[in-house]
Amino acid sequence: MMTIDKVTLEILKNHCRAAAESMAYTLYRTAHSTFVKETEDFTTGLTTPQGETFATPVELGATWFVGLNYQTVISMIGSYDEGDICMTNDPYSGHVCTHSPDMHVWKPVFHEDEIVCFVVGHIHNTDVGGAVPASISRTLSEVHQEGIRIPPSKVVRAGVFNQELIDVMLTNVRMPEQNWGDLKAQIAAMNTGERRVHEMIGKFGIEIFKAGITELLDYAEAQARAIVASLPDGEYFFADYMDEDAPDGYPCRLALTLRIKCEEVELDFTGTDPQIESSINMPTGGQERHALLMVGLIYVLYSLDTSLFLNSGVCRVARSVLPKGTVVNPHFPAAVGLRTLSVQRLMGLIFGAFVQAAPARLPSCPASGGPIMNVNTIENRTGRRVVAAIGPITGGAGGNPFGDGSDGSGGNSGFLKNTPVEINEAEVPMKVLRYGLTPDSGGPGKYRGGLAIQMRFQAQAPNTRVTARNRDWTVFNAWGVLGGRPGGNSSFILNPDGNRERDLGNIDFLSIGPGEIIQVASGGAGGWGDPLERDPDLVVLDVARGFVSAESAEWDYGLVLANGTFDPTATQKRRAELAATRSKEERFFDFGPNRTAFEDLWNYRNYAALTELLMLTPVHWRFFVKHRIFEAVEALGEEARQDGSDVRTAHARILDEFPQLRIAMST
Amino acid sequence: MPDPYNLFSSRPEPLITRDKVFGITERILVDGTVDVPLDPESVRSAIEGIRVVGGEAVVIALLHAYRNPEHERWAAEIFRKDAEDIDVILASDVWPVIREYERTVTAAVAGYVQPRVSYYLGSLQDALRNAGAGCEAMITKSNGGVMTAELGKKDCAQILLSGTASGVIGAASIARQVGAGAAMSLDIGGTSADVAIIESGVPRYGVGEMIGEFPIYIPTVSVTSIGEGGGSIAWIDELGVLKVGPVSAGSDPGPACYGRGGNNPTITDALVVLGFLGRAALGYSAVAMRPDLAWAEIGRIGDRLSMTPEDAAESIIRIAISGMYLEVSKLVSRHGVDPRELSLIAFGGAGPMLACWLARELAMKEVIVPQVPGVLSAFGGLIADVKNDFIQTVYLDLEEKTVDAMRDSFGMLARRAMKWIRDEQGFDDTVAMFPSADMRYRGQSFEIDTPLEALWIEEGDVKAMAAAFHKLHEQVYEHSDPAAEVQVINLRMVITGKPPKPAFAPLPESDGALLPRETVSVFLDGSINDAFVLARSDMKASHSFDGPAIVTQDDCTTCILDGFKAEVDGFGNLIIRPGDV
User: Fold this and answer.
1) A263-314 pLDDT, tens per residue?
2) How do beta strands A264-268 and A53-55 pair?
3) How far is residue B392's CA from residue B382's CA, in Å, rounded to a whole number?
4) B-contacting residues of A 64-93, CB under 8 Å?
């Protein structure tokens, strides 16, 4: 194949991005559902005939799909004619789609009877049928409950709609006119993309186009390799947890051993918990460069060098090891609808591994655990039912080597948009009592973690149903690094400061009555570096701005405040005292008290034993066995040992108690 | 967030940081009723707080004040009594529209610039009076209109983006002059390249346009930046790929060829090497060109790419243009406009230099270079209407029982508009009023500003109003839903008065051939070509010539590529079209 000069490559690159951006704007402009307009949960792109994404938009759409590879679904369609458009929303057919609301479409672009590329994209449909409105709930356990699933199929055959397929889909969803409107927008975007590709071929010539698109992948790969090469070789282990693997369950662990070698990385997820009986599994199909695994990696590499051209060539520097039957590689038919929650944790996991390799170049953990809030209630004046999203509750970015994390939103959630208080009050019968930053929620540090957002509102009608999707981290915290402290916890409280106050923990759904008050907050982000080294003037400013309380200023930052500024002598003394009381052991991470306590028992060796035994256990037994081992070991309390032996004993007892398990293991 | 893939991305520090924000006790509900009355004591403690931080001006922004400004006005009254020296800006005065962040940030930006703008305008008025100017000074507005400088002293929010807006107003008048159905203005200076879409001679308006790092939400001529202008610097990345921008040498030190110490190769330097620039002084002889410096810088980058200076220069232009192509392409896709139908109206010092390349990349219909492209913005200000926007948030369902309320609100807006133009502007000629409504389908989070006819409002014709919205929705988004419920969020009234316009004598018809001043060599599409150098001042109506050619004039240079034909129209505009149509 020919090679093309770098000037032409740069020009072709701009044209390819223009094509992808034009597709995105066309889709955004013509999409029917408000959901698409508000969340921008869609993407568009161009792939090689083999399915590798070589151009994506960067200004519009979700940030998760740069590394998407359509190869599996492309090859599941036998043959293509000009004018075909295919679609699928089945998370278990090729694993391009990762939960049922995402409808992926792809269209071959022909030049003289040859497919020269595909134009592709997805849209998150508000609803695709199934057990619950919007098709997603943490309580679902099988993908069959998550709505209709279309395996890879032609929705347009040589320019003619496949009406039977469309009718089957629309019969099974709750708001068919929205799905139909959005599908039409997707098709318009595909046609825009196809036209733009033909224009490029006209301008550059077919040979340059064909060579150019593979060179664009090579170019992004070469850039990514240079970034990885700038990191020290080594093996970096990191684990992180979701609070619960089931309502009131045990923590769910994700584990990663990152191996950096020259220009390449290996992401080994051995040690990750078994797949669970709720919808937070991530359907990667075991693909070593699955898009969901690559999101965190792409954030890291792009943050290290923002001149990185974003396409799936970047992913060629990585390969993953994905043990089967785990939350990162679940077996059919595990439910996957709420993988948004676990992918967030997965990104944090990757950040945590990389920050060990480059602590002077990367931030600490971004805020997490805040929900997307929905309210479903009756308007008193009209009797009309109102169902509305009242906004995401986000938190800030992690403190970083160069400055504080941004407050309120940032890091890997910076793309989410909030809703004005006045619009919420106009649309939904609710009264907002507070909407603002949560003091002291940002992890203290030389550079402070970003603060979390808090919203407090009062219901105005009986039976007001509140959904708080993706809630997590009321127990665990966003970690700080190099002496930086963890961010505050997320919280969900009914009737705060009242006599009927109730901590709702990780609950994500409840009904409340008129006059009742909900207070919800995201977790805050972790701090970077020792808070005792923070510039005292910045602490004074933080106190004046209400970001940090006087108590935290004194005991976390060692700052003795006086008359709107600080007392230098007293501060020096207090900082020395605080430094002296610290344990000698220098820890890279500060995970916060709950995780530290949890890991006193569930340390590396106990967890290694657990992982080893669970991997020998058949998938359908694992969740059960994990819970029984946890119960047994935790019952030992202070007596429990930390060398894995108690875990093995507990496992042996379970085998004795359940001969069925032995039978299952032997087959 | 400005850059969603970047973990370090952050928002700018607010103009008014949190330590300078003071809460007061009061609450107005969404329907405008008072839930908690204003506590004057809380205002007095805010005043004390402002004293402590040394505030000179205060922005008062309270929830739902767009619907009931009573508490904001009451608080302002307390300030006037107890703290007369502190300037008070009410968010409900600046732009009384729902969405507290948008309203407040606009008021904060206005408050931030007010003391200085007011001082500057005062000095200008004095200077004009002293110079014996017999008329009142007018100032351009972001909405493309003008108002008295006197009013500008307190209504600064209206003038924040007036610079780019008046350029577009100038371009729009050119579009009307030549009868262009769809046009795009292209304004390129040393540090920015801006475009705007103009349909049937009317620019598009937007809200949330950026001033520096802050969005402002008053009606503004919608302008999009597509690059960094003639000073954009070319560089080579670690993998040997040539890039242009986003760093710019600006106008100081400027491109290497300005000889003011710029030591980086820029777009302007590339044009010198290609032979299009550098023969004459630029900008009314303000800059003496140093082609040797351009050759040295471009030569250096060429060496690193193993290219001749000419090839390197052409590569720089092609890459810069492809970057602009990307940005324009996004803009036209966002608006559903076909670039092949657009006339590109080029102005600013460097617009006519690069317009032909951009038009070729986008296969645009034609390029129009007005007679004095360097000062089109000033021309735009000269011909602008006296104009103001009025808004009221009503948040109504569009139905029979709400039309009375709408009619009342429109009546009130019309009275305020008349009062503004007659009393505050002292304008006594005929005026025109344009009512419209921000409408949406229930459940949508964005509105479309839908023009309404006065008769529909008078007769309460809900059907006609809804039909206008459905039709516009169809135009903008390619679908509509006539069965869905429609909400009316805001009512708007625009009032305009046309002051007498300057008349321009038509350009005389040509009475002979247009003779080139000289013939030079330019490097274009990989080879050396002969090009005529023509003086703009020699041109008469109906003159025509083929590219490649260079047109020189005091305020700019126009580059015409091979394969393009240029013609001079009766107004002196240069119309440049691809030769094959």
Assistant:
1) 999 999 999 999 998 899 999 999 999 999 999 999 999 999 998 999 999 9
2) unpaired
3) 30
4) none
Position A217 pLDDT exceeds 90: yes
- Per-residue pLDDT at A2: 67
CB distance A606 to A647 below 8 Å: yes
CATH 3.30.1490 in chain B, residue ranges: 386-497
Q: Flag if A30 and B478 touch (Cβ within 8 Å).
A: yes
Sort strands B57-60 and A318-321 into parallel, antiparallel or unpaired.
Answer: unpaired
Is the CA virtual torsion A541, A544, A545, A547 positive or negative?
positive
CA–CA dist B493, B507 (Å, integer): 39
pTM for this predicted structure:
0.92
The reply to whether residue A303 touches residue B446, judged by beta carbons under 8 angstroms, is no
Give me the residue label for tokens 């001679």. Answer: B201
Q: Is B573 left (phi over 0), alpha (psi -120 to 50) or beta?
A: beta
Structural fold of domain B162-207+334-382 = Nucleotidyltransferase; domain 5 (3.30.420)
User: Does the domain at residues B386-497 carry the CATH identifier 2.60.60?
Assistant: no
* β-bridge mates for residue A105, sequence order: A87, A121
Residue by residue, DSSP assigns B420-477 as IIIIIT---S-EEEEEEEEEEETT-S--EEEE--HHHHHHT-HHHHHHHHHHHHHHHH
Neighbours of A277 (CB within 10 A): 16
For chain A, give every domain's residue range. Answer: 6-223, 364-575, 602-666
| E strand or H helix that includes residue A357 | helix A339-357
Exposure string over B469-483, b if 16+ CB within 10 A, otherwise e: bbebbeeebbebeee
Cβ-based contacts of A10 with chain B (< 8 Å) = 241-243, 319, 322
Q: Which of B347, B369, B409 is nearest to B188 (CA)?
A: B347
Residues 231-270 of B with CB under 8 A from A: 237-243
- Sign of the torsion formed by the C-alpha atoms of B51, B52, B58 and B63: negative
**Cα separations (Å) of A265 from A32, A227, A354, A607?**
41, 11, 10, 24
Which one, of A122, A110, A200, A105, lies nearest residue B329 by Cα? A200
Among the residues of B278-308, which ranges form H helices? 291-304
Residue A318 DSSP SS3: strand
Interchain proximity A363–B7, CB inside 8 Å:
yes
Is pLDDT of A417 > 90? no
The helix/strand/coil state of A563 is coil
Q: Do B508 and B541 touch, CB atoms closer than 8 A?
A: yes
Using DSSP's 3-state secondary structure scheme, residue B361 falls into helix
Question: Residue for token digits 């709702």?
Answer: A504
What is the average pLDDT value for chain A, to the nearest integer? Answer: 93
User: How far apart (Å, rounded) are the C-alpha atoms in residues A638 and A618?
Assistant: 31
What single-letter DSSP state applies at residue A576?
H
Rounded distance between C-alpha atoms, residue B387 and residue B410, angstroms: 17
Give the model confidence (pLDDT) of A634-658 as tens digits.
Answer: 999 888 898 999 999 999 999 999 9
Q: How far apart are CA A109 and CA A195, in angstroms?
A: 9
- Cross-strand pairs, B248: B232
Nearest to A415 among B4, B242, B478 (CB): B4
Q: In this structure, what are the phi and psi dihedrals at residue A512, rounded to the nearest 5 degrees?
A: -130, 165
Amino acid identity at A24: A
Chain A from 359 to 418: CB within 8 A of any B CB? 362-363, 366, 388, 397-398, 400, 402-403, 405-406, 409-412, 414-415
Strand partners, B438: B449, B490
* Full 3-state SS string of A198-265: HHHHHHHCHHHHHHHHHHHHHHHHHHHHHHHHCCCCEEEEEEEEECCCCCCCCCEEEEEEEEEECCEE
